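Assemble and predict.
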Amino acid sequence: MKSSEILSRILVVGGLLIAISAPFVAKLVGAQGTIEMHGRMAESGGWAPDVIQAKTGVPLHLRLTSEDVTHGFAVGQSDIPAVDVLPGKMTDVTLTFDKPGTYTFYCTRWCGIYHWRMRGKIEVSGDEAASPQSIGSPLYVTLKLDIDALHPAAVTPVGIPDAQRGAQFSTLLPAGSLAPDYYRSHSPAQTYLALRAEPALAALSAVETWDLVAYIWQSNTTPGALAAGQKIFAQNCAACHGETGKGDGVFAAQTNALTGKSPAKFADPASMLGASPAVLQGKILRGGMGTGMPSWGPILTDQQTWDVISYLYTFQFKESNK
Amino acid sequence: MRFELTHYPIVKTLLKNRWLQLLVWLLMLAGFLFAILSGFSGTPVGNRNFGIVFVWIAWWAVLILVAVPFFGRGWCAVCPIPLPGEWLQRGAIMDPPAKKPRWFNLRWPIKLRNIWLQNLSFTLVALFSIVILTTPKVTSIVLAAMLFLAIGMGIVFERRTFCRYICPVGGFIGLYAQAAPLELRVKEKQVCLTCKEKPCYNGSSAGYGCPWDVFPGGITKNTYCGLCMECLRTCPYDNIAVNARPFSADLAKPSTRMDEAFKAFIMMGAAMIYAAIFLGPWGNLKLAAYSVGSLAWFGYSAAFLAIIFGLLPALFLGVVGAGKALTKAAMPLKKSFIAFATALVPLGLMFWVAFSLSFVLTNAAYIFSTISDPLGWGWNLFGTAALAWHPYLTGLLLPLQTLVLVAGLLWTGRTAQKVGTEVKISPIPVIIFSTLITIVMAGLLL
């Protein structure tokens, strides 16, 4: 074998090994300490990886990319702003966790009918106490409510109850009617019937009593909470329940076909006025009910949940501080 | 009218030099392997993946807009696919071949010594093309399959049987190379006739026998010469020349082979169908072509095959028959059909140029973003990764395409005339056919 043959063989083999291995070497060297995460629609696998380990106080570097459509990335129960995850592009995110616990990250773009299944976990370990989910049992558990049961309103108003009109009768309300505990554990219809039974309110008409109920509901929220609730609703709920709460969101038809049940209609007084905030909280936290309703417990904070609940009632009541 | 380029010592030295060729091959092979790798390990997003962008946009642009029209089989001269198989087959990259063959060294079956298999392989790729062209992984599978097939065939058969008889690209490059202004020919036929050893075909210590199974002394057209330059190295009489020549020089002599005639229809029909799928406004057609395996796709495939193997040749047969009737020619219809199909070569080539211009200029911007981030791993090697997409020369595209189509029609008209004189049949019906089909193509493109 001539030396030219030997040299040419070395060139061919060496050159090709370099061509193939160079990108992987560069990747290993360049991306140390960074986790690359690929997003796909839930039916094609969701996030990969979908469980990530982290430590409190140690920055977690993520490089996000999508393999199909535009997705979003956010971490539940945190104030880290959501980012878009685009096909063929890398988005860098750095997260630092103060408290240990299991955090849920999720897609924030309506990427498809199973959008809400695009979730994963970040398991944060550390010496600090208090995990993000260490609040006690939710209200529907302590009240032993059956959140899967139907909750028809025993009575419904004629027209839209107006909180501002109801305000003028507020002095007539029995003590404790405005307390958060009362509001959360009673449906508007139950409250209406209770008020009708009050001798002090006997002179009020049905419309005026309903206005008073609206006033109670308005008193248990704030303009800021309603605005926050509206934003959460538009981002997370309207895809199925519809922008106007009529159960006609863009995915409603597909959900119907899949589960045989349509998304709840918050604009329908017959069911909405029969639901107490505690029941709604249970449905939001746990999800299910034989429908495609996701569980929002790991994603929404306690405050966010109450904000969105208070917003849901504005499909029934005219609340002036909206 | 010829101008011998190898007349210049510097040109001849460069062309004969194995190191230069090896260097180019190495670069190409590295790019080729990287393209395969990027399909498997890179982003599955087509327009961000090196494999898709560099094979189907950059390479295709160079091939169809420059290499084939101006250099004929120039691409085959640097194509990396045969390199590994040939190394195995010969047991050497540079050294002279062993006296005894290392492997089976079979002759290619006589029945298959034509380009029907290439017609078939191109048609197969064409039927799945919209998926191959948009899905990095599928592109990689196709590229890898070609490489492995070339290696396997190099072990079983002698010479470059993959290139000559199977490669889906090689088939049409050969057809259109006839129109190119570059050729490899012998200087004096007499020298070859009296040459006893014929090292250009049989190989010698100076180099390998023609890998394309061609005897250079007998070359009359570019179709099957791969421009590998082995004969330039082996000829003991310095009788091989690389010439510049007028465009379409080979087309003056009409083809006599049905496989070549059908290649012309397959290519022309495919260009038209692609224009309809990729550039047309028909969403359902696009979807049908994409949904491989679905009923709609079978319908699309049936239509595709019917057009390129049925409708176009049948219409053309009628047209040639009309010409025959007009001139009361003696030549059999089949022979006249084959001869006149030669006239479609320039038009088919120009259809492809016009079609490719639109998607190459539209998508060229992806070349810049992909070269900086070839695998979609978030790199930015040259600072161009984030370069936004925008189409180039949009104002020039339509005039350019029109010009190309008109030039193709004129070129085909002139070739038809020449064929007509040769076979003594009126070319008028063929020219009318070409005009009508150019109008259809213009309608699809413009």
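Residues 233 and 308 of chain A are 6 Å apart (CA to CA).
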